[in-house]
């Protein structure tokens, strides 16, 4: 997907780095009712870079991937592969870049990444009312596997659990 044109801009992916922390944290506050703190973002980026408590080992791999349109962070994701299972922890597209297939491009990159790291299946949780995300996940073959009652806050909402094999 690198180089694919989106609204006249060039889409490129790269691992997030410590200098992206503030931008990601600002998007978190803009997008999510319960955003990750700047420390959580920084720690997650450090794990993926191998400078935190994680990185890649025989037991776990971490990813922090940014999608950039003409150098501007337009979306990102965080995930892991651990014990042969992938988990998508966070995926987001900046409001100004929605409806441009950036979420789809990020999902394709993530599914390729988990496959390369030996995941036999992949899990994620999503707000029951997040219809755009649910549509995206179903498009890529994720199936609903359960519900966690009152899992999310601000506002309180159930989480739907999805699995991909």
Biggest sheet features: 8 strands, mixed
What is the CATH architecture term? 3-Layer(aba) Sandwich
Q: Going across the biggest sheet, name each strand in turn.
A: 1-2-3-4-5-6-8-7
| Number of spatially distinct domains | 1
What is the CATH class designation? Alpha Beta
Order of helices and strands: EEHHEEEHEHEE
Q: Quick one: how many beta strands?
A: 8
Helix content: 25-40%
List low-pLDDT spans.
1-6
Percent in strands: 35-45%
CATH topology: Aminopeptidase
The chain-level mean pLDDT equals: 91
- The secondary-structure class comes to alpha+beta
Note the gap between the termini.
22 Å
- CATH level 4 superfamily: Gcn5-related N-acetyltransferase (GNAT)
Per DSSP, the total helix count is 4
Write the layout of secondary structure elements.
Elements: E1 5-6, E2 9-15, H1 21-31, H2 38-49, E3 60-69, E4 72-82, E5 85-93, H3 102-116, E6 121-127, H4 131-139, E7 143-152, E8 157-164
Parallel strand pairs: 5-6
Antiparallel strand pairs: 1-2, 2-3, 3-4, 4-5, 6-8, 7-8
Structure write-up:
It contains four helices and eight strands, in the order ββααβββαβαββ. With 165 residues, it is α+β, with helices and mostly antiparallel strands. It has a single domain, classed as Aminopeptidase (3-Layer(aba) Sandwich). An eight-stranded mixed β-sheet has the order 1-2-3-4-5-6-8-7, with helices on both faces.
